[in-house]
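Q&A log
Question type: sequence-to-structure
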Amino acid sequence: MEQPNIDFFAHPPQLSQSQGESLARMIALIMPDAAVFTVDRDKKISFWSPGAEKLLGYAAQALQGESCLTANRCIQCMRGCGLTESGKVTAFPLQLQRDDGQLQGVIKYAMAFQAADGSFDGGLEILLPQRTSNALPAVSDMAEKYGLISHAPEMYKVFEMIRRVANTDMPVLIRGDSGTGKELVARAIHGESARHKAPFVAINCATLNAGILESELFGHVKGAFTGAVRDHQGLFGRAEGGSLLLDEIAELPIALQARLLRVLESGEYLPVGAEKPLLANVRILAATHKALREEVKAGRFRQDLLYRLRVIPLFIPPLNARKQDIPLIIRHLLKQQFSDDRLPVMSTAAMQQLMTYDWPGNVRELRNVMHYALVMCDGKQIEVTDLPPELQPTQQSTPNTATVSTGRKTLSEADILQALAANHGNLTQAAKQLGVGRTTLWRHRKLWQDQT
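Response status: OK
Response body:
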């Protein structure tokens, strides 16, 4: 809908907090569809209108006295709204996360209250619902089916590309930094395609040597080499009728690149030791975190294979380019492990710390951080002190090397953190790996928490 121009906020009057509170309640009555709320000088919510409850989903009773960031979750909000500095905000578009994790577009108007000495004494904000006709439909389907969690415009393009390329059999090259979810995108392409009832098979080309990789890809016949005591069906055979993801394609040995090129050109592949080629009824998807054009220039990747694989390029933006997704992803991760009535809450300080971090490991790193935080927290609220050392505001990016005695052996913090990470935050498994009791490990993680 067309948004009104509220001239009142372009040249706001100087109001005290009590005057502003009265004004907010009056505006809430005449604008029932808008979110109207006030904050005190500490930016804690003092009034939350019924329209705000309806628009953003947060109950007034739960927000009273809480930081405004509890209900205003977006990148700009976490970095500051500008109200303290400028005294007003006029017709500023925002994308906020509702209580249910959905994205809500709003137009923001705000004015500051002034104390007798002229200092900031709180403020009044009005959020008008912004309804657009070009929003991408059924974005939530990507989250529910494939674990792709986002409301960022950059990811809208990825979702739209997934739907478009799924209707073809053309090779797709998925490019993105480590941890951005390249395999999830590949699974989504397969899942949305006509091949979705057939197998989806994936292999990481960086994990196997050239000899094993050739047999894994194309299979081998009995007697093809020492130890080949029976026929072996390769990944192309196992993916028959479906899709095959070649992850870390840049690591494919140069000799095997020629074999793969032949499959893409002829549609046939030859198992190791076989005399007759087999027909490959497989959709090829490739993924890499490297720039293949640079690999071609360096002589590590065939240019003709690049052109065959890069028929449809698809780029996944890193997490630090779509930080507005962080609260949404966190909520999704928490809801995977807890019912709504037991869902832990992120403190404002902890959320701010997560929003300002650069996330070199992307969504995978965020997932690991949440595993760690859930081990460290009290089960009700996640605080800054529950985050890993690299996210602590007063520590360096490397873990503390201090040690503690368990009575049987001496462990460094690095030992414990490594065990927790290796076991995805499972305290019992981490304790077993370290050779200590679960209670002992719990006690010492609290010891370091107190030292932080």
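Response note: The radius of gyration is 27 Å.
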